[in-house]
Amino acid sequence: MYNRRNFLKATGALGAGILISRSAFSMGNAFAPNGSISKFGLQLWSVRDDLSKDVKGTLKLLSGYGYKQIEGFEGKQGIFWGMTNKEFKKYMDELGLAFISTHCDINKDFETKAAQAGEIGMKYLICPSLGGPKTIDDFKRAADKFNACGDICKKNGLRFAYHNHGYSFTEIDGKMPQDIMMEGTNKDTVDFEMDIYWVVTAGADPIAWLNKYPGRFKLCHVKDRKKGADPKEHDASADLGSGSIDFKKILKAGSTKGLQYYIVEQELWDNSTPLKSAEADAAYMKKFKM
Question: Hey, what CATH class is 4-287 in?
């Protein structure tokens, strides 16, 4: 079983070393004219244990649930789960799944990963975490690193993005780390993936941030938070629609501010059943309307 905290610690070595009118943006390309989401994805971390037992069988189930897009992560078997990039894409094509993006360790073999991702038409390589940087200078160094990664991605026909956690929405020395990263990165090569759950958990307003930086958040994690959860409780993920986050309001706003990819994720720390949750989340997304 993969341990997310250890994974994020490994990929976060960097941290130690280092209002616009509606017409300005078209509706996110995942939205149908009636306001429903025609294409939505799943972050594979949500079903990591099932994947480790049966990669192809699990992906087939996800396709059957109604997911059209997949976002991966870098586990023990790599980004492509023991297959070559072309083998993995071929199987995804057979299932009608698009491999849009993947979280990965940006400090190891990044140029190789970018070349492999670009070769099969992926859209993004994403930094999943910084491991909890402690100073504003750490975040400035992160922005520099992101710019370098963005340049590498551009050469390979894709883009780079950073996935937030709650810590970047907590002030340090009177400054907001998320501002430092967004203002310090090249908007032509570096985007951001808003994990809505973590923004809310940090006590911030997702819509305010979408309005503040229109066009910079191109992807989002649609992840719900348990009703009544203590604000200090971080691990309070819930099936979509059963929690407290107003996705109708947030995604409607996001669709006018540049959001293009809507990726379901669920953090499951207890003995719940990930595939059942993935199925329930897909059912919610299929019925969703703004």
Answer: alpha beta
